[in-house]
Amino acid sequence: MTHELLIRIDKKLATSFTRQIYEQILQSITSGCLRIGDPIPSTRLMAEKIQVSRSVILQAYEQLQAEGYLEMRRGAGTFIAANAAVIDTDLFYSEANIDNELMVNVPNFKSVENNPLSRNVNSHATILYDFRHGIPAWDTFPMDRWQRALTEACRRATPEMLTYGSAEGSLALREEIARLVRSTRSIPASAEQIVITSGATQALDILARLCLKDGEQVIVENPTHNVLREIFRFSGGEVIPVRVDEDGICVHEINQSIAIHSKEADSHPKLIYVTPSHQFPVGVTMSFNRRIELLDWARRTGAFIIEDDYDSEYRYVGPKVSALAGLDSSGRVIYVGSFSKILFPALRIGYAILPYVLLKPFLAIKWITDRMSPTLEQEALADFIQSGQYAKHVSYMSKLYASRRACLVNALDQEFGDRVHYFGDEAGLHLLIELDTSVNEELIAKKAMQYGTQIYPASDYYIDSQPSKATFLLGYANLSKSQIRAGIKLVARAEQECKE
Ligand SMILES: Cc1ncc(COP(=O)(O)O)c(C=O)c1O
After folding, report:
1. E-assigned strand segments in 246-386
2. CATH node for 158-388
3. What span, in angstroms and rounded, lies between the C-alpha atoms of 483 and 491?
4. 17-80 in CATH: which number?
5. What would the pLDDT profile of 92-110 be if each residue is shown by its tens digit?
6. Above 70 in pLDDT, residue 111?
7. Atom of ligand 1 nearest to the CA of 345
8. Dihedral of CA 308/311/316/322: which sign?
9. Which of 117, 308, 384, 405 shows its CA 20 to 30 Å from the CA of 34?
C-alpha cells in the first residue's frame, strides 16, 4: 500500500516548498512512520494533492535520493531505500523507556506466559515442547466447520447486524447458551440473564468495576489465577486470599483471613471469586457440603459469588458436577463461562449469567466501556452450537484430552517415580505437580528451556505464602503423546543436571 504522506505546505514560511517537502519526508523516515521498502506517492499524485508544481516535488525526491533515503525504480515507483537510516522502533520498548511511575501499579508477573513485559524474553530459544496451560489442541479443531459457520453468518448479515447492536449480544447465541447451561450445568437460566463478553476476563472486569469501590473487599481462593486476581485490584478492591483444601475454598476461614489480611477492622466483602468445578490451579472440585456452606455465607453477608466455570466441559473421572449457580435459590451467584478452552482463546467470547438485580448496571458498564462484542462471530457460534458441531467437538476432545492426560501422568511417573505428586487430574486441561527435589523450580524451568521445553513454575499463583516444594502447572492439551513423553524426559534431565 502506498504511504499517503500527509505533507503540509506553509506558504507564509521563508523556507522553499522543496525544502518543506524534503524535511517532512525525512521526518517521517526518522520517526519510523516510513519504513524500508514503503512506496510513496508519485510526483504527479503528490503535486495534485498538495497543489504545487511537479518539479518542486521532483527536486525534493531527488535530494532525498541523492542522500540515500529514497530509491526511484523505473516503472515501479519511489520507495524508501534499503539503506535509509531508519530508527529501531524496538528501542521504544526497552526497559529504559518504561516510565517507572506509571509502572508502580502494574504487577511484574514472574511467569513468562503472563508477563506483558516479557515480549522478547526467550525469543532466541526454540520451544519444542510448550506445557503452557489453558491452550486447547489446534490440530483437531474443525476449522472447515467453523469457517462454514462464519461464512454463513456473513451471508445472512443484515444492516442491523453490522451496526451498533445491543450490549447483551446476539439473541441467537444467548438462547443457545441458555439451552446449553440448562442441560449440561443444571442452571435454570434464560437468555435475558445472559450477557456476552470478551472472554471470561471482561466479565470479571465489569463485575469488579460494578461491585468494588475504593478498598472494598473481594475474597479469592489461595492459590488463584495471578492475572485474573489483578482485575480486582485494578478496580480498587482489597484482595483477601483464603486457603483451599481438598473440599475447595475454606469458607470457615474467611473471617480469620480478613482479620489477618485486611486494613479494615470492620469489613464486609462484596465479592467472592471461586472456581468450584476445577479449582484453578490446584484442580480440586468443591464438595457439595462446601458449596452449601459458601451459598449460606453469601446469603448471610450479602456478598455475590463469582463462579468461574472456565473448563468444566472436560471431566475425566466420575460424573459431571452441576454448577454452583444451579444450587443458588437466593440470587447470589454470578456464573461466568468462556469458549476459550473449547474453541480457541482468540475468539474472545465469554458470558456472564447474572442475577436480575445486576443485569442493568452490568449492561451499562459493558456499553460504556466496550459497546458490544463482535456480532458475526457470535452468530457463527450460535450456528455452530445449534448444528450440533459444538457437542460433537466437546465429545471428541474429551477422549483425546483424557488420553493425553493419562500419558502425562504416566510419563511423570516413569521419570520421577514417587517424587512427583499431582493434583487436579480429574478434569480440565492442566495438572499441578509437586516435585520432591532440592532444586529451585525457577532453575529447573530455566534449564528445561535450554532443552527446548517450557514448563511453568506455579508459585506466582500463591498469595503471601509459597509452596514448600517445587511446583509446576503443566498444560497438556496441545501436545501429542510423543511430545509429552519427550518433553517430560527433558524436564527430568534438566532437574538432574541442576542437582549435579
Ligand atoms: C481460571 C481461568 N478463568 C478464565 C479463563 C478464561 O479467560 P478468557 O475467557 O478471558 O479467555 C482462564 C484462562 O486461562 C482461566 O485460567
Report:
1. 248-249, 271-274, 304-308, 333-338, 350-353
2. 3.40.640.10
3. 12
4. 1.10.10.10
5. 555 556 666 666 666 655 5
6. no
7. 11
8. positive
9. 117
Q: Does the CB atom of residue 308 touch ligand 1 within 6 A?
A: yes
Distance CA 103, CA 97 (A): 11
Give distance in angstroms: CA of 210 to centre of ligand 1: 20
CA separation (Å) from 354 to 130, 183, 311, 357? Answer: 36, 18, 19, 8
Lowest-pLDDT choice from 80-94, 307-321, 341-355, 433-447? 80-94
What pTM does this model have? 0.89
Q: Is the pLDDT of residue 199 over 70?
A: yes
Say how many Å lie between the CA of residue 351 and the centre of ligand 1. 12
Which residue has the CA at smallest separation from atom 2 of ligand 1? 310
Closest to 133 in 3D by CA, of 243, 275, 280: 280
CA distances from 459 to 109, 469, 488 (A): 11, 10, 20
Q: Which atom of ligand 1 is nearest to the CA of 203?
A: 10
Q: What is the pLDDT of residues 247-305, one digit of tens each?
A: 999 999 999 999 999 887 667 899 999 999 999 999 999 999 999 999 999 999 999 99
Q: Which atom of ligand 1 is nearest to the CA of 308?
A: 3
Specify the domain boundaries for CATH 3.90.1150.10 within the chain: 112-139+393-499
Distances from the Cα of 279 to the Cαs of 144, 283, 473, in angstroms? 33, 4, 13
Task: Give pLDDT tens digits for 131-152.
Answer: 999 999 998 999 999 999 999 9
Give per-residue pLDDT as tens, 440-452. Answer: 999 999 999 999 9
Q: Whose CA is nearest to atom 13 of ligand 1?
A: 134
Testing ligand 1's pocket by substitution, the residue of 277, 308, 349 carrying the most ligand atoms inside 8 A of its CB is 308
**Mean pLDDT over all residues of the chain?**
91
CA 134 – ligand 1 centroid, Å: 8
Residues of the chain with pLDDT > 70, as a percent, come to: 91
Give the residue whose CA is nearest to atom 5 of ligand 1: 310
pLDDT band at 25 (very low <50, low <70, confident <90, very high): very high
Query: Regarding the domain with residue range 112-139+393-499, which homologous superfamily does it belong to in the CATH classification?
Result: Aspartate Aminotransferase, domain 1 (3.90.1150.10)
In the chain, CATH 3.40.640.10 sits at 158-388
80, 34 contact by CB (below 8 A): yes
Least Cα distance to 370 among 160, 198, 159, 173 occurs for 198
Q: Kindly state if the Cβ of 225 falls inside 6 Å of ligand 1.
A: yes
Q: What are phi and psi of 474, to 5 degrees?
A: -115, 115
